[in-house]
Queue: 3 jobs
Job 1
Amino acid sequence: MKCKKCRHDAVIDMRHHNLALCKEHYLEWMVLQTERSICKFGMFSHDERLLVAVSGGKDSLSLWDILWKLGYAVDGLYLDLGIDEEEPYSRQSGEYARQFAAQRGLHLQVIDIQQEYGESIPEMGRRTKRGHTKPCSQCGLVKRYLLNKQALEGGYDAIVTAHNLDDEAAFLFSNLTHWSLQYLGRQRPLLPATSGFARKAKPFCQFYERECAAYAILNGIQYIYHECPYAEGSKQLRNKSLLNQMEDQQTGFKTQFYLGYLRALEQGIFPQSQEDAGVLEKKRCHRCGQPTQSAGLCTFCRLVTGK
Ligand code: FES
Ligand code: ZN
Ligand code: ZN
């Protein structure tokens, strides 16, 4: 297998693009394609300040690396979830994130959930339970809330997350099987800012997961290899494996699936919710002032105060 550009030995074969590349040209290609996605979807510009959500995994560290190489003004936010009971998952991912930032002289904000709110994510999950044994929904809520809060308070122009095509295709599959029109309208590569909510962008939405992993490995980026211990057996992972089976049978399946969704969005098949269009008048949380659907406290404040 030879690199399509220079005929040296290729390190990766992207059959869905019919493209094999050597290390040098692959790394160059990833950077270029990221910039293309940013421009194609009008995500952000070089004079804006960005906040990237860093988990310590291959996707977020690769994204931060590429945005930094492209010259964007980008800080990182790492949320220490305190998932360390069975294995030191949070501790290790935090170390990788800190090490990455220090090596490049980048600014990483760290919020320790346990220190800040008195409980780790597994503890919050156990306290609230609601019939679930895993704390994933509480974790998702805390992450979304704090990311938005930090972006607004820090005066950032956009939040950037490293969702890749495998993530997006798996969400899409789940949302389609449930016909969750509200979520289907929100799963855009770019969600503009609305009152109380920062702009959100996903520049990696067209990369396969293995492409992000290859970028991290070829760049010598150290990252947490394991998934969160609570992800095991999750619907998201099951959907990913299903879509990978489809990809094995039909090269480019995941890309076609996702690109079809983007076309449907352009045609207005999944319209923006009133909420995203900023039409809906929201109430404000009594405790934190963030927008909320219901009167009184927002869901985050209810979670952390136990009310
Ligand atoms: Fe949040 Fe697993 S429960 S990352
Ligand atoms: Zn080459
Ligand atoms: Zn609140």
Note: The first strand starts at residue 12 and ends at 14.
Job 2
Amino acid sequence: MQSTARVLVTGGAGYIGTHTCIQLLSAGYQLLVLDNFSNSSPEALHRVQAITGIEVPGIEGDINDAALLDRLFEQHAIDAVIHFAGLKAVGESVAQPLRYYHNNVSGTVTLCQAMQRAGVFNLVFSSSATVYGDPATLPIREDFPTSATNPYGRSKLIIEEILGDLYTSDPRWNVALLRYFNPVGAHPSGLIGEDPSDIPNNLMPYIAQVAVGRRERLSVFGSDYPTVDGTGVRDYIHVMDLADGHVRALAWLQQGLGIKAFNLGTGRGYSVLEMLKAFEQACGKTLAYELVARRPGDVASCYADPTLAEQELGWKATLGIEAMCADGWRWQSQNPEGYRS
Ligand code: NAD
Ligand code: UDP
């Protein structure tokens, strides 16, 4: 992909999308963002503009709107699509599976149909480490078996398989399936970051809200796992590193190598209590927590073998948990109510 190419970024106003837009703009790409703002705010795109000094054209609309997609491909010379748009709350997906399959799976089918009509065959897809289910061994390689334990995870798995079928049907498709581990942190400016609209499901935004006084204490889900201190272990990755992975993936598409899955993680796991301690260091406060029962569906440990991404994308995570916590805290403390602050 020439770095002057135009990229359609679906879900570009969201957490990972905004950070990726910044890295794409600084690499010289032209962008068009499509977002229905179901889990984000137009303010997030204004902040991207404030950080980069570059105007980001944003269209409010849905990936399930085929006529809108046709218009966008017709009016803009789009070379590639980075597809972040999707719903991502595991518990909600269990309660509302059809909403998840419609938004994530049907939305992706509608998007790919529009790409096909427009002759655009370059796609980077936001997948997740959740597709590995409960891995038999660690670290996790891309060739490990996949499985799903909830509709959210199943939607990612189904989409990966649909994209595989698409490539089999037409080798002009180039698809990078990026399997994210646990994205955390924020842009170092403190202007953009993760802004959950409800009570956070994920560890780091929950800790950040305890630190800023919005929540009383962290509930640590499970302290009897076979891990370093009994709490769950995950591969946390700085969202700026993750964003760079997308820039590398766009360049990889250019080689025309078909479809491939890549782990985007650091290769190192940290426990819940280790992350809590690192955040305490970053914010300079002691944070209240209590040990409670395991969360159903959680695995003990999950971390990546990121070798393939290093070999084929030339990408490697560079930022550690100190930067993840310091940048996450800067965003949260400067924007205690997120984009509503
Ligand atoms: P996010 O909710 O912040 O961003 C998703 C964006 O997509 C939001 O701006 C939302 O408004 C938009 N959107 C949702 N449905 C849409 C639709 N039908 N049409 C148009 N826009 C729509 O989430 P995120 O954390 O930035 O995640 C981005 C992608 O990465 C998602 O596909 C998610 O499943 C995947 N992912 C996220 C994580 C994580 O921990 N954050 C981990 C693995 C994978
Ligand atoms: N976790 C926790 N309390 C919370 C949220 C998460 O103890 O309020 C734990 C969770 O059990 C897991 C780790 O933190 O061990 C990461 O959870 P998260 O939901 O952020 O990511 P995922 O489980 O999807 O990898």
Note: Residues 182, 201-203, 206, 218-222, 232, 234, 272, 295, 298 surround uridine-5'-diphosphate (ligand 2) (CB under 6 Å).
Job 3
Amino acid sequence: MQDILEQLEARRDQARLGGGQRRIDVQHSKGKLTARERIEVLLDEGSFEEFDMFVAHRCVDFGMEKQKYPGDGVITGWGTINGRMVYLFSQDFTVLGGSLSETHAAKICKIMDMAIKNGAPVIGMNDSGGARIQEGVAALGGYADVFQKNIMASGVVPQISVIMGPCAGGAVYSPAMTDFIFMVKDSSYMFVTGPDVVKTVTNEIVTAEELGGARTHTSKSSVADGAYENDMEALFEVRRLVDMLPLNNREKPPVRPYFDSHSRVENSLDTLIPDNTNAPYDMHELVRKLADEGDFFEIQKDFAKNILTGFIRLEGSTVGVVANQPMVLAGCLDIDSSRKAARFVRFCDAFEIPILTLVDVPGFLPGTTQEYGGVIKHGAKLLFAYGEATVPKVTVITRKAYGGAYDVMASKHLRGDFNYAWPTAEIAVMGAKGATEIIHRSDLGDAEKIAAHTQDYEDRFANPFVAAERGFIDEVIMPRNTRIRVARAFASLRNKQLSNPWKKHDNIPL
Ligand code: HXC
């Protein structure tokens, strides 16, 4: 009996060594943790339960029968984050570059099935050269199986991908179908094909960092939602995010103890809006002043900075925030910001996270670049996302809400539950100057007349009261009381029931 127990321990030790000490040392020399170390950082201490530690590949081509590693390059299982269950997989780059074989894929699919059945998020730590080349179509089939699970899990349980090494081929397409992608700066890359293939096919010379590094994907392509300095920081941030999310689509987001006053009055907000209505101010300040303990988990903070998206807590409950940012492009909506915010709104709606929308938007960005790029269709994504969302929606217009962008930004007409405005709000078809130049074109040569018309338009529309008279704005509120008013609004909506007509699925303008 003792022998058998010792044999089990010896087998476990071998599995824990992955591709061997030499490769582990190489992994460490690149500043990367091993697959097992990552799990230790991510989960609550001692909570990890492993599956399929002894699974081995079945390939006999290219001498693969002599290269067997128990576990086959991926560690799978479940554990807890602050006491709440998550499923995970962590690819082991020391085993054949973390490449995905048929059996490696089956391990990932198994935990994804369990996650869907038991209603818990899936976290993938990706460090993989993609489909295992020696296995050919068996590996490709394995990836397709993982993709199918990603699709089935989408909107059922949150899926989070952390990119922690060079990821190519299928190793990027699976993360692309998950809800959030986080990268590690300088040690993680995502590309369909690497720089060598790019050079061969297109003659382009590009470094891995330029082609698919964290900066590229967080600021240019928007494939990734955040980038962190090292493995530890990335994993700690994933813990922080998981803590804000519900475990599945049938659960409400967790309510955590909070240490902020529920009756906090923020006098400084009364002077947040500059006297000059065209001067910018930082919308981050408002978000942080509303949030419990000023904590804002921002999503895609380096992309389309004219809109902010992310999570805060209000009286302990998670709220998704979408806010125009007047510091960038005057807060205009454009292609990138519409796509960014639409995806965020849809995530919140899928997982019953209430949405707070802070509006200061002078309209859609005009011009050929935007029109040729399809701003009509991309802007419609955000309109569609807000309109179909059935979660509690609270909107605060701080200053401008012009034109179509007024409609889009969770207006009353798109089933906003509470639509508040600050006294500084200006709700109109467009700014006074533009409006005057159109409706009083015949007076354009007369500066005095134009000034008078502009003043007249401002007096009539540069306020929230015309909209309030129609009930499009429920209440004009004091800026300093915004946290209290918004928190009370969400509290009153806790039992909101709203559903859309039956359909197989909608046809959002992709
Ligand atoms: C088998 C692989 C592998 C792969 C890496 N290795 N990728 N083994 N299949 N796909 C092995 C290497 O042979 C090596 O083994 C070890 O992993 C480490 O690889 P290195 O090249 O030494 O590491 P590095 O220099 O850091 O480069 C990492 C890399 C590179 C950028 C990922 O290995 C690479 O380009 N690999 C191929 C990527 C690729 O084209 N994959 C196929 C994608 S097709 P030893 O024994 O020396 O440790 C795909 C289709 C899916 O995924 C469908 C999509 C829709």
Note: Residues 102-118 form the longest helix (17 residues).
